[in-house]
Design a protein that fits this description.
heterodimer, A: about 170 residues, mainly alpha, 6 helices, B: about 150 residues
Chain lengths: ~170, ~150
């Protein structure tokens, strides 16, 4: 990957993670629900969740952009929307998996050993497939929305012209 | 040993201010470099702009993360959006969101300048406009932040 595309990958990943979180915070605060929501969240858990979202978004964005030259190739940009949808779904599932693992470990550590299987592990195994499907759908839709916004911002940056010089 | 929550919140606030100083100071630095008229400085300004873009996005992530941490420190005592403090916070959050959204085309434009073989004089004008706007937006956000903290 060229150094310009590495910068594009890093900026897109951070852009997606921060805008996603900021929109939720703005929405919650405008409805006066942010204080109550944040007061129940441990500071380290909150910071850890953001870092986890940032990391999964970086990995999935890297995979989505693999082999694409968004700066120099118009055909590469036209195929970006589908990749954003697919890797958005993967990001949704990855983040949920991290969330699920943390929740299960926390629940197991606070439960008597005799109740771990019936009280935590069996319900988790039952819920996991449904949760993964929902997280993939939500992630895919969010990915598609971001893919559309990204294409608009590519155009704003003057990348809507036909093929410029290749960068990879 | 349990960490004192006040120490944790001070550390988060310090990280927030450090990230803001990096992002704002970096934008002012690139703006200052791009106001020099000679061609050698144009190449240097572009090189610094590319490095700044890497730092900017790291700072943006840290600012979002620690900003939410700062709000969490208020807990249920966080003033509502109907108060004048709340309206200023909404304005600040909206400004931050707008700056981040409009920073992506800036990064793409800088990456494009980096790979293009166009005239350096044009590049310098583009950089001056991009980083002038970025520094201006940061100045507005900083003013709102100071008002929220001390107003």
């Amino acid at each position: 990957m060229g150094s310009a595309m590495k910068l594009v990958t890093w900026s897109l990943a951070t852009f997606h993670a921060t805008v996603f979180v900021l929109v939720i915070v703005l929405f919650a605060y405008s409805r006066d629900a942010l204080g109550a929501g944040l007061s129940g969240l441990n500071t380290f858990v909150g910071l850890g969740l953001f870092v986890a979202l940032w990391a999964t978004t970086y990995v999935t964005t890297s995979r989505a952009l693999q082999g694409l030259d968004l700066i120099g190739s118009a055909p590469d940009r036209s195929g970006y929307g589908w990749r954003a949808f697919r890797w958005g779904a993967a990001n949704g599932m990855s983040f949920l998996a991290i969330l699920g693992i943390v929740a299960i470990f926390t629940a197991v550590s606070n439960t008597r050993p005799g109740q771990v299987t019936s009280g935590i592990l069996l319900p988790a195994v039952f819920i996991a497939p449904f949760a993964l499907v929902i997280s993939a759908a939500v992630g895919g839709v969010v990915g598609l929305i971001f893919g559309t916004i990204d294409l608009g911002l590519f155009a704003l940056a003057g990348l809507n012209e036909q093929d410029a010089e290749p960068t990879v | 040993m349990e960490l004192d929550p006040h120490v944790l919140h001070v550390a988060i606030r310090w990280l927030h201010v450090a990230a803001m100083a990096t992002a704002f100071g970096g934008a002012v630095t690139v703006l200052a470099l791009s106001t020099r008229p000679d061609v050698d400085s144009a190449g240097a300004a572009l090189g610094v702009a590319v490095r700044y873009e890497w730092l900017f996005w790291a700072a943006a992530g840290v600012l979002a993360m620690t900003g939410i941490g700062n709000l969490a420190a208020f807990g249920s005592g966080l003033l509502g959006p109907a108060t004048s403090w709340g309206m200023t916070l909404l304005l600040k959050l909206g400004s931050v969101l707008a700056l981040i959204v409009l920073s992506l085309p800036r990064t793409l434009a800088v990456a494009r300048l980096c790979v293009s073989s166009g005239a350096m004089a044009d590049s310098v004008v583009t950089l001056r406009n991009l980083y002038g706007a970025t520094a201006g937006a940061f100045a507005v956000i900083l003013a709102l932040a100071v008002w929220l903290a001390h107003g």
